[in-house]
Amino acid sequence: MHRLFHVMIAAAAAIGAALWIGLPAAQAASIGGSFELIDHTGKTVTEESFDDRYLLVYFGYAYCPDVCPTELLIMGQAVDELGELGEEVQPLFVTVDPVRDTVEYLADYVPSFHPRLVGLTGSDEQIHAAARAYRVYYRLNEPDEDGNYLVDHTSYIYFMDPDGDYLTHFVFGQGPEKMAEIIRKHLD
Ligand code: NI
Question: How remote is the CA of residue 102 from the centroid of ligand 1, in Å?
Fold first, then answer.
């Protein structure tokens, strides 16, 4: 069911994406922007904290049973696939579930996907502002009797240039080789 939600959201967003193609670049460029969040070491960071690297930005949550771990794995594999060029790319995971995805929880979670993956959390307001900047939709479902809950959310990986401008995005199901190929074109 969770997977289905992801797919439905991705499909709805893909229609939106198709509509942008005919739009002036200025409108697509309005995806992204400044954010202030807390990384998995407890440090406050902004979009300018990553040494002028390109950013790969994915919003999701660590308790996600399927799509998020898959996407994070693919993102890490794409960075590795780039070899030395991968050093110019900073992968970021922004949680949409900051209550459960604390600094400590993310510190345990992110290294299993890539040694340079940075996990980002923050207050509800900080997460909300970052999600709004990236036009990410998310919604927490009702908890079950054990207090567990799923979160519906947009599952795009955004690729941003070192100035924080939107370059492109990747949809669920795109493999790491294809992702690396597209990134390489932008880096050349
Ligand atoms: Ni997910």
Answer: 16
Kindly give the distance from the C-alpha atom of residue 104 to the centroid of ligand 1, in angstroms, as a whole number. Answer: 19
Gap from CA of 2 to ligand 1 centroid (Å): 8
Q: Assess whether pLDDT exceeds 80 at residue 42.
A: yes
Residue 26's pLDDT is 53
Instruction: Tell me which DSSP letter residue 34 carries.
Output: -
- Phi, psi values for residue 136, rounded to 5°: -95, 130
168-175 own/partner pairs: CB under 8 Å, 24+ apart: 169/17, 169/31, 171/10, 171/14, 172/6, 172/7, 172/10, 172/67, 172/70, 172/71, 174/74, 175/74
Which pLDDT score, from 0 to 100, does residue 17 have? 46
Cα gap 61→99, rounded to integer Å: 10
